[in-house]
Predict the 3D structure of the following.
Amino acid sequence: MEWLYAPLQSVNDILFVATDNLEWWQVVLVLADYSLKIAALGWVPADRRPSSAMAWLLAIFLVPFVGIALFFLMGSPYVNRRRHRIQNRANEQLRELGQDEPDIPDGTELTDELLSLVHLNRELTSLPALDGSLLALHPNYEQSIAAMTRAVDEAKIYVNVEIYIMAWDSTTAPFFEALGRAVDRGVPVRLLYDHVGSMKYPGHRKLGKRFTKLGIRWHLMLPLQPLRWRFRRPDLRNHRKLLVVDGRKAFVGSQNMIDSSYLKKSNLKAGRHWVDVMAEVTGPIVNTINSVFAVDWYTESNEELGLLAPTKFKQQLSDNAQDTGREIMQVIPSGPGFTTEPNLRLFTSIAHHSKQKLQLISPYFIPDESLLEAITTACYRGVTVELYVSEKADQFLVGRAQASYYRELLKAGVEIYLYPAPAVLHAKFMIADAEVAVMGSSNMDMRSFGLNYEISLMTGEGELMVQLKELAESYREKCKKLTLKQWRERPWYSRYVDNVARLTSSLQ
């Protein structure tokens, strides 16, 4: 140990003494470790939220080589160049063909608050607000699938279906069989489902073959097939759920095409089932829902459906005009192709606009700083804020990360309602002052804001708003209200696990 006390004359002496007893590979390893960390300090925070940057830096500093490998694999929300180029081109086409269309239909009167939200969405996604009618709101899982099955059986021109998770089981078989009957009638059926999202459920390996046998034209969304040179970030998902029939009727919402138990033995044993909602709409708004499908179909198949052509767009608006109920609606697509995070900005803006009552329904509630501040600020302004979540989340880490926000929310005055287990409240919508509502596939968490492709539907006063309010009230009657006193009485180890999970919230 005498070398520790030897007089050092220069930097070279320091390096020589420090490395005298180390093997050459150990020196290389130490230098590589520090080089990675120093580089990460100036590289990771670029164009990233501070919370996300800190989470990634923590991972890199604690487990350097593993952390940097994960960052390269999953650290950027941006998709590959081709997908990004397609989304940018689609946005430009939508701007061009809709440049003569006003933000809202002629003759429509909106409040200043709602009009500003329409302007925001138009700027971020290029899509205007259009007229539409709610045909039905479907909060019952099996009845929702039955309604979609009936719609497919009525198809005469085409069927476009895009749903995140698909599995052929006793609950969903009638829907898939209806698709086959449509093909037999000469109706083209196009189908998209997420590769990674569906692969963990029974029968996924044979699902494509069954579709092919029926004559359905289908593609995987965001396929992860490295052996076929189809590789991408494994954590990106296309989370959208939509069905379009003949360009005249569409379904959007939170429900996947799988049994409500998600076919897991543990769920069946515990009686766990998912609670969802789908909106069935008609009118010109169906055209923009179909445009979202058209972009995703082209991305996966390289086939242009022509739905973004100006003549086709104008014709479909005209064809659907007779079906309008003069209920204002606007489609908001979001995902890695949109660098401005349209869904997050919309949720945050609605919270800031709220004056009397704000209701939030989301199975996964992990807000970023801007949304958290908007919600708590609304409470401090005297707004009644209600948050509806599941009593027990279906994902451990996500549930714990979500729970880490409850204390802050409760202290601000947010009323938290727990939908009783074993049910999983999977519906996703937001209502402010009976003036604006938004529903769709988007959760209120980091994954839906930046990593998932989502579709949301915003509306003002009208039947959709009325029925969403009634649905929220029905949830409230079933829920247990969580109090700050109850939350403070949790054991210390639960709080510890929640806080550890919170560190991962920016990466989920």
Q: What stands out?
A: The two ends are 47 Å apart (CA to CA). The mean pLDDT is 86. The longest helix spans residues 24-43.
